[in-house]
Amino acid sequence: GGRRKIVAMAKAELVERIKALQRSDPQAKQAWWDYCDNNLSGKKDPNRHEDYTLQDFLTQYESGGPSAIGASRSVPPRYPSAQPVFSRPPRPTGLAAEVRNMMAPIMAAPAAMHGSMGSMQSNPLVECVKTGQRSSHHWKNAWQAYCALYGNAINDPAKHEESFTRSFLDYMGEVTVKCLESQEGFDEESTKRPFAGIVAAPAAKRPRVIQDQTGKADLVDKIKALQRSSPELKEAWWTFCDTELSGIKDPNRHSEDILQQFLAEYAP
User: Fold this and answer.
1) What is the DSSP letter of 42?
2) Cα separation of 180 and 171, whole Å?
3) Residue 129 CB burial class (10 angstroms; 0-12, 13-18, ≥19)
4) 3-state SS assignment for residue 237
5) Strand, coil or helix: 183
6) Is there a contact between 71 and 26 (Cβ–Cβ < 8 Å)?
7) CA–CA separation, 43 vs 33, rounded Å?
C-alpha cells in the first residue's frame, strides 16, 4: 500500500513536469507531441502513460533537447497561438463587402496618423474599440473574449499591435454580416445599391432562421458527461484545454471540430 502511494506520487510529479514544459516552451511541447506520435499512438495526455514512459521522454529531452527526439524538424504547430483554430471564411461579397468598405477608412489608417507608441490615445483603432466598450456591453464582452483567446488576456487595446485590432474589427464585421444574412427576407440585391449613409432600422424585427445546433449540443453534453463519469477524464479535458485551447474549459465555447477531436481520443 505504501509503495503504491509513493509510485503514484512519483508519476504525478512526472506528469506535472511534462505539462509545465509544454506551457513554458513551444519546442518542448512539439517534442512531446512528436514523442507521442512516434511511440505512444498519438495519445498526448501524460496521465495516460506509465511513469517509466514519462521518465524516458524527460531523460531524452533533457539530455539532448528537442533534437534528441526529432522535435526540431520543421513541423508547423497544429493550433498557432496567433491565429483562430477555425478556418477563416472566404472573402465576403454582397452585404459583407459593403460592411468591409464602410470600415476600410479605419482599418487602413496610416501609421503616420497614429504617432509614436507613447501617444496611442490618438490611434483611431484604439478609440474605436474603447468607444464600442463604452457604448455596448455585447461589444465589450466580445472584445474581452477575443483577447482571452488570441491576445494573452490583455484587454487594453492600446497595448496591442494595430494588426491585432484590425483583425478583431474585421472578424466582428464578418460575424455581423453572417447574422444579418441569416435573417428571413434578406435581399442581397439591395446591397448593390450605393450606400447612402446610416438608415433607420425597420420598425418590426424580422424573424430569424434558427440554425441547427443539435449536433454541437450533443457533443457538449458528451464531454460534460465524460467529466462527471471519471476524475481521470475530467483531468484529460482540462489538460486538453490548457495545452490546446488557452485554458478555456467550457465546451460550449469551442467548435464542433475541436469537440470531436477530443471525443475521438477519449470517448469509450
Assistant:
1) T
2) 14
3) buried
4) helix
5) strand
6) no
7) 9
- Cell (9 digits) for 262: 477530443
Quote the longest CA-to-CA distance of the chain: 79
For 157-201, how does the pLDDT look when each residue is reduced to its tens digit (9 = 90+)?
999 888 889 888 888 888 887 777 666 555 555 555 554 444 444
Measure the CA–CA gap between 264 and 33, rounded to whole angstroms.
17
| Distance in Å from the first CA to the final CA of the chain | 29
At position 152, the amino acid (one-letter code) is N
User: Is 208 strand, coil or helix?
Assistant: strand
Q: How confident is the model at residue 207 (pLDDT cuts 50, 70, 90)?
A: very low
Q: Please, what is the Cα angle at 255 between 71 and 153, to 5 degrees? A: 70
What ranges in 108-161 are assigned the alpha helix state H? 124-135, 137-150
Amino acid (1-letter code) at residue 100: R
Q: Are 241 and 249 in contact (CB under 8 A)?
A: yes
Residue type, 29: K
Residue 208 backbone dihedrals phi, psi, to 5 degrees: -95, 145
Q: Which of 240, 244, 241, 236 is nearest to 79 (CA)?
A: 244
